[in-house]
Write a structure and sequence with these properties.
Chains A, B: Pfam families: TGT. With 376 residues, chain A is α/β, with parallel strands linked by helices. Helix content of chain A is 41%, strand content 19%. Chain A starts with 5 loop residues before the first strand and ends in a 6-residue tail after the last helix.
């Protein structure tokens, strides 16, 4: 196994790419979907079962982990991999996005941000330097630069100011990250939906130099059309030979559209969160297992799916345990959704390698257009 | 595999017994502990993992299943085994106990009992005949006779009246059960803590004749001393050559004491319920994982335990995920508790077979007397 972090592109099809990220903790096949293990667990899943769905890498959240159990405690306990029993690569975000979306009483300055915990109201501080320290204590393999995300809606001027602050923070992140062989630091492009700002941000990041580049500030309510609009040009501003990570995306059709536009990595809570709210994702679209139409249905969610939920249980059972608020409903639906997402990624990788992405995408949309199987 | 239900005693040690119940769906090694899968799931566990802990048989609850998803629906879907993905033996209770403890507005007559659902207030009826029908629709391997449990505290006269009603219902249950090769009907001894009533009840049941005999009306708040007092004589009133099932028991030391007194089968929600409330059972007693002493503890719950929670996670992790209300806390602690219970049963079976139960029980109590490992 390699002792350094590297990325090899093995095939392209149009703007879409497939390849392999190598790390000392294992390979990440791209395009990759990263399940989210917010607070040291992918909710309702054992890590060996997350791996069994085909996940090569998990995402952990700096904001949640710094508050509880704290980065220092995780470090004393041997790091996040050991703590949560996942020995493959972990990417941690920088905390910037969650501070914006979850914390109370934020106070922003050039230096960083102070805020109060949403758990107990305690006061905390994040800066590029502290975020790098926390992510080092957690032991993450892919570290994200600390950035600021403006609350939407925002004027173009506010987006520009915020992006330039994030670029100054990106440089401080790079300096604070230091020399850590086998670990990677990714910069995060900002600039909202404004092409000039995206280009300026990308240029600033390339000037600093990172092992990978994220596209931030999307999937925050702008809608798929606006997001794809940015993805039509933004990946092209980034170096060809480094992985491109679209943060917080998304629904299956968002993922397919992003991969078509040259994205290599994504993460989203959607498959696991949906599992806990009774939503399943299949080749034929979304299934609401709460719906009474499933009450007597002996068929699996998707007869072509090989996940445990589809292999061994009827829609009627899944409906029953969801309605009865049984934990197994979250366990089985989350497993199914993560399995479906990873199967989709494998399909995309195979199609790109074969130069048949167009056919794959057409079949993907055709199956969804059919909709769910007819009620019995 | 056998096509009939049978019980073979293979060894005894004092009053304790070990043996095998054979059914068309597999063998049940006794003494057996049956995890409770109330509404079609052992909470927070996948059935294959319940099996991996060593469970030979599960218990399902007639009361819960008749209300939701209904016995008729389960039958249309192929029976409870298929519905919940458990192909080994299932014992169902008769519904009598839960009607007493959970339902609203009960109305009792010689014929049976009407009540309102605790879920939606809908009106339902149970009688010996309807309970037999429901348990047949569910497809359970071991069917329990329909009985009445008096609310405690009760006068001896009330306990006697209730027991005699249950004995008349036991006869009606036997008649309604019919001829079902491979399936068993168990009668339930009642009579509270009064020896004469227990003897009268046992005689009535033996006169009717059952494939097995349960001891009901214990573990309902009378305390361990009173329960053991009854178990000092009650099993002796029952036929030697049929399994004896103590309903709703219990804590590990209750189980050991019951096995010493000649009990072959038990069930209890305790290991799974405790798992969801942060209580773990180990060789050294009870561990409250919520306690702050575990916050920095890198050691497993029990270093000698081979369950996934102990093999791969620290007390600090279990503490963290419990405090963060993560589903994995319920999953891992339930798994550990069920594993511990089954390991205890295997220890009891092996000790009885070797004629060394006394030593085993002494070591069991000695380890518990030591208490949990010292904090770091």
């Amino acid at each position: 196994m390699t002792q350094r972090f590297s990325f090899e592109l093995t095939a392209t099809d149009g703007r879409a790419r497939t390849g392999v990220i190598s790390t000392p903790r294992g390979e990440i096949r791209t395009p990759a979907f990263m399940p989210v293990g917010t607070a040291g667990t992918v909710k309702a899943m054992l890590p060996e079962n997350v791996r069994a769905t085909g996940a090569d890498i998990l995402l952990g959240n700096t904001y949640h982990l710094m508050l509880r159990p704290t980065a220092e405690r995780v470090a004393r306990l041997g790091g996040l991999h050991r703590f949560m029993n996942w020995d493959r690569p972990i990417l941690t975000d920088s905390g910037g996005f969650q501070v914006m979306s979850l914390a109370d009483l934020r106070k922003l300055s050039e230096e960083g941000v102070t805020f109060r915990s949403h758990i107990d109201g305690s006061k905390h501080h994040l800066s590029p330097e502290r975020s790098m320290e926390i992510q080092r204590l957690l032991g993450s393999d892919i570290v994200m630069a600390f950035d600021e995300c403006p609350a939407l809606p925002a004027t173009e001027e506010a987006v520009a100011q915020s992006m330039r602050l994030s670029m100054r923070w990106a440089r401080r992140s790079r300096e604070a990250f230091g020399d850590r062989p086998g670990h990677a630091l990714f910069g995060i492009m900002q600039g909202g939906v404004t092409r000039d700002l995206r280009e300026e941000s990308a240029a600033a990041l390339r000037e600093i130099g990172f092992e990978g580049y994220a596209i931030g500030g999307l999937a925050v309510g702008e809608g798929q059309e606006a997001m794809f609009g940015v993805l039509d040009y933004a990946p092209g501003f980034l170096p060809e030979d480094r992985p491109r990570y679209l943060m917080g995306v998304g629904k299956p059709d968002d993922i397919v559209g992003a991969v078509e536009r040259g994205v290599d990595m994504m993460d989203c809570v959607l498959p696991s969160r949906s599992g806990r709210t009774g939503q399943a994702w299949t080749r034929r679209g979304q299934v609401n297992i709460k719906n009474a139409r499933h009450m007597d249905d002996p068929r699996p969610l998707d007869e072509a799916c090989s996940c445990p939920a589809c292999r061994s249980y009827s829609r009627a059972y899944l409906h029953h345990v969801f309605r009865a608020q049984e934990i197994i409903a979250s366990m089985l639906l989350t497993w199914h959704n993560l399995h479906y997402y990873q199967e989709l990624m494998q399909g995309l990788r195979t199609a790109i390698a074969a130069g048949r992405l167009g056919e794959f995408v057409a079949a993907f949309h055709a199956a969804r257009a059919e909709g769910d199987i007819e009620p019995l």
